[in-house]
Amino acid sequence: MLETALQILNQKYPSTSAEAHCDGPCGVYDPASARIAAEAAVSMTKKIVGMEPPAASDAAAWAAYLNTLSRYVSIKEEQAHLAKEELLVLWTDYFKPPHLEAYPELHNTFWKAAKLCSAVKVEVSVTHAEELMDAIEEIHNIFWATKNREVTYYTAS
């Protein structure tokens, strides 16, 4: 019934077509969201590495330790996955063939960054987490260069 009503409305008041060169209005894309998620994953990785296990005989301390560890791991994996999603959207929706012509290593740069997101998710490696931040900085610089803008790359920590 609702479908029929919508068809009648569409026939009586047809809409005009609109076209865009990207999936959303210009200015929607920004690698900052990937950086923020990756930086959270770096922070959790460093916290995990810095944890000191309690004495073997202290059950309450072990419960607290394992609770904190599992929370850090969960956040690290969630944020690394979010960084990957943000990068993949930027790669597949924003960048177009002219960008690839100007930056021939673009696909490899994004592929490497996506693989680093996976590594950060499944490992506890400060090295890989920091390499991910470096890759995102490279993407940041390329992205803003395609817009003929200089935007300073910064981190929260």
Written description of the protein model:
The protein has six helices and no strands. The protein is mainly alpha-helical and 157 residues long. The longest helix has 36 residues. The chain starts with a helix and ends in an 11-residue tail after the last helix.
Question: How many E strands?
Answer: 0
Helix content: over 70%
Q: Averaged pLDDT, please?
A: 91
Q: Low-confidence runs (pLDDT<50, min 5 residues)?
A: none
Q: Which series of helices and strands comes N to C?
A: HHHHHH
Count of helical stretches: 6
Provide the structure class: mainly alpha
Indicate the proportion of strand residues. Answer: under 5%
Describe the global form.
flat
Per-chain topology:
Layout: H1 2-12, H2 32-50, H3 59-94, H4 97-102, H5 106-122, H6 126-146
Helix pairs in contact: 2-3, 2-6, 3-5, 5-6
